[in-house]
Amino acid sequence: MLLAAERRGKAMRQSAKQEAVLAANEAFYGAFARRDLAAMDRLWARSAEVTCLHPGWDPCRGRDAVMASWAGILGNAEAPNIRCLRSQAAIYGDVAAVVCYEAIEESYLIATNLFVREGGAWKLVHHQAGPLAAEPPEPEAKSGPGQRRLH
Fold first, then answer.
1. What dihedral angle (degrees, nearest 10) is formed by the CA atoms of 117, 123, 125, 131?
2. Which CATH architecture has domain 2-131?
3. Pairing relation of β-strands 60-61 and 121-131?
4. How far, in Å, CA of 82 to CA of 35, rounded?
5. Nearest to residue 111, comparing CAs of 70, 59, 53?
6. Greatest distance between any 2 Cα atoms in the chain
7. Helices (H), ranges, the chain
8. Over the stretch 53-91, which tens digit does the pLDDT of each residue have?
9. CA-to-CA distance for 21 and 115, rounded, in angstroms?
10. 45: which DSSP letter?
11. Domain residue extents for the chain
């Protein structure tokens, strides 16, 4: 009985960590969508080395280069709108990975965002987005009583 309770407690802690990472990921896409450079700057790690691979760009290495890339993107009034879809987080101690889709107008990218724990918060250390050959697959329907697919 105690073992089952410990497993439930561990699963709940893991779920809370995943929710915190997904909230940090949402904050990243929120800053991106609002073109908010100050918010973007607060989301990136300061003590860990950071990198960013924008689609079609050479790698940005180091905080200065990464933030300069975001300043260019977020400062571009013609930059397309972006939405994050179907984020999934995995936690590896003080490191977390989020894989998600990015909807940009009529096209899609696949993205990986890596986070580390810094000062009690999840901070980005790596963002990479690249083209997707087709629309993202439909999410799998969850099975269970009272759940049905509406469209």
1. 130
2. Roll (3.10)
3. unpaired
4. 10
5. 53
6. 59
7. 2-34, 37-43, 63-74
8. 998 889 999 999 999 999 999 999 888 888 999 999 999
9. 8
10. -
11. 2-131
List the structure tokens of 55: 């689609």
Q: For residue 16, what are its two tokens?
A: 């809370």
Give the integer Cα–Cα distance in Å for 74 and 130.
18
Structure tokens at 6: 């410990």
Is 60:54 a contact under the CB 8 Å cutoff? yes
The CA distances from residue 21 to 33, 48, 62, 81, in Å, are 18, 17, 22, 23
- Could you tell me whether strands 121-131 and 51-53 are parallel, antiparallel, or unpaired per DSSP bridges? parallel
The DSSP letter of residue 44 is B
CB-based contact 127:53 (threshold 8 Å): yes
Q: Rounded to whole angstroms, how far apart are CA atoms 99 and 70?
A: 20
Contacts for 79 with CB less than 8 Å, ≥ 6 apart: 35, 73
**pLDDT tens track for 13-22:** 568 889 999 9
* Whether this model's pTM surpasses 0.85: no
Under 8 Å between Cβ of 50 and 126 = yes
